[in-house]
Amino acid sequence: MKVGDLCLFYHSVNEKSIVGIAKVVKEYYKDPTTDDHRWYVMDVEPVRKLKRSITLAEVKAEPRLNDMQLVKYSRLSVQSVKEDEFGIILEMSEQ
User: Fold this and answer.
1) CATH of residue 52
2) Average model confidence (pLDDT) across the chain
3) Least CB-packed of 14, 86, 89, 93 within 10 Å?
């Protein structure tokens, strides 16, 4: 992800919901909290909260999102979101 890219903010523990939009403000860099060379972080800042949170169950129930990485690999911390998927999530949050 590049500086300025928008991303969906997902609560992955109890809520399992997409709750907002964030913006990348610093590209990935080595995680300073670990010596594990495989761990990286990036800095994001909130842009806005979604009008309505979208649960993982709702994402899985939406046929247009069947190929979304969140459906197939919900345990990954960072995932690609296609432009049309991003739009569908925003549309769903407005309903």
Assistant:
1) 3.10.590.10
2) 92
3) 14
